[in-house]
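STRUCTURE:
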């Protein structure tokens, strides 16, 4: 952020720059609309026609170190930020030389070098990211603004309110810019909002806010300078509602049946370019020849951009799987040193020690979640840590899973190493949009410009009589999502060692801690440290069959293996540890020896992780099998409350033994 005056300097040169910026966006998008009808540009195309004064008035005021989070209608933002038109046009085509490597398209323009953190196709999805970017800057003592652009439709989303609250609660330097174009897709503002003065909603969160005529580029720039000055002075958020109008349909698919053509025509007469152009000519700051020169130069730039995009190369099919995750990952940690001294501890304490170790080693690491500080978390894992590391690094959050998870993603984008604790796995569904649509996709969509080195911890599983809404085992769902790494530590060693390794990963890692393990006690090496998170581990050797499991079911499976051994059946037990990616090699090597398998998975049977593993076994080791693969999963019911029904609904040692004997033909 840089010191500025709150009044724009309307010299002739500056006035022509403002006009050029708006004309450049308008003409670029007119060409994009033409190219869309010729099927050169595909997908959703959302045009900024009528809103150009906002990008032209605000973005040049921001400094080069300030960050921008855009929405899906972001061509104007990208061009105003200085992303070369060639790169933007090539991205619209989906070409390799596009600003996102051709992987983002119209709705996902990125440029890390210019701190342009991308468009977001999820309405309101960028708001928590801006909060997280600003949080990272504040924690490091850096002075930047994170500017977030969004439409008025986003204010109906929960993430809007969660972001407003967090920004004020934590005093973060975020510039919120609501581009109020009066229609959320086809729904007029008065039909969707009980309070149509959008800036009043921000004011209710004690955010300094104002409404400005978004069709007046001079007024917009003046408001941007006021906002910048206020944020510079206070370090607190500021909210601009720019009241504008969208001349074109929501997207090129939109038949626009919800408004009359006369309404659009009336607004076009007072559009930002028409209005400013006329004023400049009246005042003598610009002449028709100046405007003709601008239009001629912009037309030439557009022609060159189209030629560049047409000639650019497509990304080869061989690169399809690139940038789902980082290509350069740290080497696995060294093999653990000899134990020597050991200590008696619990799974809970092992996780706690892992957090302490990580935060002591790396100042970028911080933990946030509901009740993690003063209360110590739902399962008391972080009890007392706020006294050791302080409330900035052990950060209590409101009950706003999407908001603070998105903030964690934003902080990771800015180079921090957040640990987000979601109290239980069922609450993670409130943050699923941020996990699935942002954390898991942004590396791919940005063409490897941005990564999300984030760890999300959550409790999972049944067995405590918590009934249907608190007994889920959804780790298999998350293992379905490309771009994520999914871990399920079962042993004390893994509970202690996986976190640090996960924090070194350049991509998002989800760690599922089974609720039935927190009180499990045992012996742990005093020098226990990071462990490999890439490979499964054989927990018991055998040659009769392979039992494949993870997390809370490991010890039930080991108990079942002991029971089978008493009948002369030696079962091999594989602890998966990593659910995405799966270690196929370890599984298939075991099956080459045992020729039979049973998979134990606390998820529901239909569409389960067990089904995926069974399919992989069939694909890779069919000719090694002497019997069909067996599966022991949770019953196809919401997990019941009564203890006897809960026990019957989830895998138990007895059901594992029975399944093993069936596979062996002894059932």
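SEQUENCE:
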């Amino acid at each position: 952020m840089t010191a500025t005056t709150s009044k724009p300097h309307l010299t002739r040169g500056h006035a022509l720059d403002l006009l050029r910026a708006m004309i450049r966006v308008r003409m670029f998008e007119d060409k994009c609309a033409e190219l869309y009808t010729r099927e050169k540009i595909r997908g959703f195309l959302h045009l900024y026609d009528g809103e150009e004064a906002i990008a032209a008035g605000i973005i040049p005021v921001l400094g080069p170190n300030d960050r921008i989070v855009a929405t899906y209608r972001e061509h104007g933002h990208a061009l105003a930020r200085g992303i070369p038109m060639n790169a933007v046009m090539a991205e619209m085509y989906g070409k390799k030389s596009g600003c996102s490597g051709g992987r983002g398209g119209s709705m996902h323009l990125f440029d890390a070098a210019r701190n342009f953190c991308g468009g977001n196709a999820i309405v309101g999805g960028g708001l928590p990211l801006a909060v997280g970017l600003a949080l990272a800057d504040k924690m490091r003592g850096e002075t930047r603004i994170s500017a977030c652009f969004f439409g008025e439709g986003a204010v109906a989303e929960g993430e809007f309110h969660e972001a407003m609250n967090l920004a004020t609660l934590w005093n973060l330097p975020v510039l919120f810019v609501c581009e109020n174009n009066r229609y959320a897709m086809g729904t007029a503002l008065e039909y969707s909002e009980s309070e149509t003065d959008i800036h009043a909603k921000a004011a209710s969160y004690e955010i300094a806010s104002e409404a400005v005529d978004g069709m007046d580029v001079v007024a917009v720039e003046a408001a941007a300078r006021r906002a910048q000055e206020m944020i510079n002075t206070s370090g607190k958020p500021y909210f601009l509602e720019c009241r504008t109008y969208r001349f074109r349909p929501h997207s090129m698919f939109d038949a626009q049946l919800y408004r009359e053509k006369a309404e659009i025509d009336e607004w076009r007469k007072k559009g930002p370019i028409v209005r400013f152009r006329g004023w400049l000519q009246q005042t003598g700051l610009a002449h028709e020849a100046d405007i003709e020169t601008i239009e001629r130069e912009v037309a030439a730039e557009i022609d060159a951009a189209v030629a560049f995009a047409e000639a650019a190369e497509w990304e080869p099919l061989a690169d399809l799987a690139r940038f789902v995750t980082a290509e350069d990952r740290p080497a696995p940690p060294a093999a653990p040193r000899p134990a020597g001294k050991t200590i008696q501890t619990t799974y809970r304490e092992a996780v706690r020690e892992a957090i302490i170790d990580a935060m002591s080693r790396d100042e970028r690491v911080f933990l946030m979640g509901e009740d993690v500080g003063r209360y110590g978390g739902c399962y008391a894992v972080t009890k007392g840590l706020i006294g050791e590391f302080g409330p900035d690094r052990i950060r209590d959050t409101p009950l706003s899973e999407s908001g603070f998870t998105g903030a964690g993603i934003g902080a990771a984008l800015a180079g921090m190493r957040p640990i987000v604790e979601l109290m239980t796995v069922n609450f993670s569904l409130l943050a699923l949009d941020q996990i699935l649509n942002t954390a898991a996709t942004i590396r791919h969509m940005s063409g490897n410009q941005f990564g999300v080195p984030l760890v999300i911890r959550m409790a999972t599983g049944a067995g405590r009589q918590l009934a249907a809404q608190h007994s889920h085992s959804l780790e298999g769902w998350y293992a379905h999502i490309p771009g994520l790494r999914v871990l399920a530590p079962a042993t004390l060693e893994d509970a202690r060692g996986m976190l640090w390794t996960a924090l070194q990963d350049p991509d998002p890692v989800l760690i599922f801690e089974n609720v039935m393990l927190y009180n499990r006690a045992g012996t742990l090496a005093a020098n226990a440290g990071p462990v490999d998170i890439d490979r499964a581990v054989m927990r018991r050797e055998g040659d009769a069959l392979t039992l494949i499991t993870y997390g809370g079911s490991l010890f039930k499976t080991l108990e079942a293996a002991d029971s089978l051994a008493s009948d002369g059946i030696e079962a091999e037990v594989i602890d998966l540890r990593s659910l995405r990616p799966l270690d196929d090699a370890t599984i298939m090597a075991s099956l080459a020896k045992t020729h039979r398998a049973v998979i134990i998975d606390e998820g529901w049977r239909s569409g389960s992780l067990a089904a995926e593993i069974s399919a992989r076994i069939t694909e890779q080791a069919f000719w090694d099998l002497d019997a069909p693969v067996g599966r022991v999963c949770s019953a196809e019911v919401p997990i019941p409350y009564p203890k006897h029904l809960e026990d019957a609904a989830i895998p138990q040692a007895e059901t594992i033994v029975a399944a093993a004997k069936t596979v062996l033909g002894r059932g």
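REMARK: Confidence is low (pLDDT under 50) at residues 1-5.
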